[in-house]
Design goal:
mainly alpha, 2 domains, 63% helix, elongated, coiled coil
């Protein structure tokens, strides 16, 4: 009898443990279902927002009269805006908006002034295009072709040379400009000290 009672107690404890585990699993499943439904609803809301956003981009694209012809083959049947080609549409739209701003700003600056009439402002102050600085403010002048040719001819390397990437070219240019004669080539032919420059100037005025 004692053995049977012990076995009954073990079975009862095991059943209670199974019921407790089953209850925990049900609660976990309910929580996971709630999280899944919340994520599903959130994704649906995001999809609706994206659809409205894509529709707005397409309307702006049409309003600005952007040309999609060069990319028709690339887009294929996906002529509308979607998550896969939205970056392309935004890139084209950004360029077109900048062009329109520049044209409007140029027209605004070149319109004749009439006395007693307030000039029409098309482009607001806070969205005006950045002023384009003259090239003389960026560098004194273009590199002298004679000095560049001399440097290229004198730079003899027996090893096989490869084309620099953009980053490598920028690093090399920055290091070159740090040298004492880094800006010596920034002059025109008439200011060049090489013998070839005098011959060119003489032929020019003959």
């Amino acid at each position: 009898n004692s053995v049977l009672a012990t076995q009954a107690n073990i079975n009862s404890a095991r059943a209670q443990m199974q019921l407790s585990n089953l209850k925990k699993y049900k609660e976990t499943l309910q929580n996971l279902n709630k999280e899944f439904n919340n994520e599903l609803n959130s994704n649906k809301r995001i999809e609706k927002i994206l659809e409205r956003l894509f529709d707005g981009i397409l309307k702006l694209f049409t309003l600005c009269k952007c040309d999609l012809t060069p990319f028709a083959t690339l887009l294929g049947e996906n002529a509308g805006v979607n998550r896969y080609n939205v970056s392309l549409f935004l890139q084209i739209l950004d360029g077109q908006v900048n062009d329109l701003l520049l044209k409007s700003f140029f027209k605004q600056k070149t319109q004749p002034k009439v006395k007693g009439k307030v000039p029409v402002t098309t482009v607001r102050e806070d969205v005006r295009p950045h002023r384009v600085n003259p090239i003389q403010k960026v560098v004194p002048t273009n590199p002298c072709p004679l000095c560049v040719e001399k440097e290229q001819v004198s730079d003899v390397i027996d090893l096989l040379q490869f084309v620099h990437s953009r980053g490598e070219a920028e690093v090399k240019l920055a290091n070159r400009l740090k040298l004492p004669d880094g800006l010596d080539r920034l002059h025109n032919v008439s200011a060049c000290n090489l013998p070839q420059s005098r011959a060119i100037i003489q032929r020019r005025y003959q």
